[in-house]
Amino acid sequence: MKIEWTRRTLLASGVAALATPSILRAQDGEIAIGSLTPNTGGGGPFGPNITASHKRVAEAVNAAGGILGRQIRLYQENSETNPETAVRAADKLINVNQVLGIIGTFSSSVTLGTMPKCQSANVIQMCTSSSSDIPIADEKGLVFNFQPLSPIWGRAIADLVLSRGIESYALMALNNDFTRSMMDGFIERVGQDALVQEPFYYNAGQSSYRSEVTQLMAKSPEAVFIPSYVADFTAVYKELYRQGYEGVVITTSLSTGEQFKETVGAAGDGVIHGFPVPALSSPAYKQYLEEVGLEDTGSVQHPFGTAGRDQMSALLLAIEKAGTTDRAAVARAVWDVTTGEGKTTVYNIADGLAALRAGEEINYSGASGSLEFDEEGMVLGRDFQLSEIQDGKDVVLQRLEF
Amino acid sequence: MSLQMIVNALVNAALIAPPAMAFSLLFGILRFPNFAIGGYITVGAFAAYTLNVPLGLPLPLAAAGAMALTALVVWGTHVAVFRPMQGQSAITLLVVSIAVTLILENVIRLFYSADVRGFDIPLQRPWKIWGARITPEQLEIIVWSLLIGVMLHLLLAHSRIGRAMRAVADNPMLAAIRGVNAARVTAFTTALCGALFGLTGVFAGLDLVIEPLVGWNLTIPIFAAAILGGIGSPYGAILGAVLVGLAEEATILVLPSTYKIAVGFVIIAVLLLVRPQGLFGTAEIKK
């Protein structure tokens, strides 16, 4: 049914709403939540899993009677991993659907691009983004990041490769905030002395990467570290291979997904890559696999789908805890239900709701990680994993547990 | 400058020379800078990908198919979009051509998504010659680029249609009076240039990755090469391509690599200030 909102109907509905007993009004209203995920584009391999997790948690809660006696209404939009598309979608979610929160944004540019609108409308954001600008741009304490910031990536990847006894590195990063600060984190750990030359940056969308690669290889480093995204990394890697580089190539796992492997074929073997992964031994991760219907293979599956489950669970638990849908109160309650010691640890939303309703304090420990947030809403730590491509498949080399 | 940098510059030049020549030829006949070339190159890359990977044709056949298809697309765009707008100012047509490139890019994105792809051929390790490295594939691109230059020269200088193309480019009215069928010449030129853009798509797919922005990323260097050589002068475009390639390589010796993308713009700006007709172009007399 399409409702035409004229001034008259608005007035009529306003009067009707006032005439309704307030308790009934609360029960009638659904709680609107926006899911804005990268279903296509750079985050395409991950978005659908995040979306499915949001839906799964919301449906389970609805089937069990909802939150505060209200049903959850999920509005799904595809960000296309593109800030422009995402801003339009966020506009619709905020102004048309009147959502309480927008969850599931993936790339930093999307999270940051939609942030001004979310902040001015007091909409909670939950993301898996890594730019260090995110906590700075969040002036109202409404943003929760389920992924470590990029310097932490750099440090963790460095810690993992350090144990491989590589002595000299050359560094080149894509020129954006995420990759630049990842490079800084990496240098912090391996030390300036291990670098054969000054690190440098390149732009995405260049017509060739030949001179950059020539420069990168010039001093014959044992390894090169290239924080990047998949499109530019694939072109850069092709050039490295064509210029005959035979050392170790290290990057993030975001650059080495199926697209990369298919494009470069057997030449991709030997590339080492790392990124934050779910806590494989956590009960929440095992429950997640059951919910999705996956076998526990001991290796990482659905790296971002797990975060999707945790976002929706944390948000709904926070609403229950706050006892209201007032956004600021809900945001504050996110810390209450996820962070801090001496509380009952819960691994899924059903147990969490039961404990809250029994009057207990809870600490939700998620499938993506144990989920402790700092005062800026950034997740404190995640497990990291280093893999190597062998015969076109990722083989786990090492895992760093938080 | 090391030998490797010269090799790098030559490969860059081989990649942008054919489309710069095609851009120049198109400008000569149609009299406006056609920004749609980015979209055309992307169409070529994806056509070759479709023939090569999902349909399993060997790359040379796929390349030929891509050239034919892109020729059709460029000619079709001319008939559907630019011909009805004949007589509009060059600026109007330029803006329309930007729209065309956006439309083509987004149609591709709709059907293929923004994922990166590659042709079904293994990457090759380089030959090492006096310390410089070059792969057989890169050498092939250079040889093809040279062959195309020579063939275009023969076509323009020694064939009937080539003379007609030059005549129309020089003075369309006079050519018409002398009985040159401008419509046929235009159709031939658009199709020929389309084939060159298609081939560039294949080369770019080999050299970089196949994605919807592959053509757009090459547009500025192609423009710079064509303007440097003198718009409307195909031989100038070859020289322009080599100079742009060398300039981009040399930049990294003195400036951070992130400024490399600006080199094309700087070349265009400086040249338009100092010698607007380009190195090989002849100054146009406005009456």
Word description of this protein:
The complex is a heterodimer of chains A (402) and B (287). Chain A has helices at 7-19, 22-28, 47-63, 83-95, 108-120, 133-137, 150-162, 177-190, 210-217, 230-242, 258-264, 283-292, 305-322, 327-338, 349-357; strands spanning 31-37, 72-78, 101-105, 124-127, 143-145, 169-174, 200-202, 223-225, 248-252, 272-277, 344-346, 362-364, 383-390, 393-400. Chain A is globular. Chain A is 43% helix and 18% strand. Chain A is of the alpha/beta class and 402 residues long. The model of chain A is unreliable at 20-27 (pLDDT under 50). Chain A is built from 15 helices and 14 strands. In chain A, β3 (101-105), α5 (108-120) and β4 form a beta-alpha-beta unit. Chain A has two domains: 31-145 and 282-370, Rossmann fold; 150-275 and 383-400, Response regulator (Rossmann fold, 3-Layer(aba) Sandwich). In chain A, the strands form three sheets. A seven-stranded mixed beta sheet of chain A has the order 7-6-8-9-10-13-14, sandwiched between helices. A five-stranded parallel beta sheet of chain A has the order 2-1-3-4-5, sandwiched between helices. In chain B, strands 1-2 form a two-stranded antiparallel sheet. In chain B, 73% of the residues lie in helices and 2% in strands. Chain B has eleven helices and two strands, in the order ααααββααααααα. Chain B is mainly α and 287 residues long. Chain B has one domain: ABC transporter involved in vitamin B12 uptake, BtuC (Orthogonal Bundle). Chain A binds chain B through residues 40-42, 44, 80-81, 175, 200-203, 205-212, 214-215, 230-231, 234-235, 238, 241-244, 259-260, 262-267, and chain B through 2, 4-5, 8, 11-12, 15-16, 113-118, 122-126, 128, 133, 135, 137-138, 207-209, 211, 213, 216-218, 220-221, 248-249, 251-252, 256-258, 260-261.
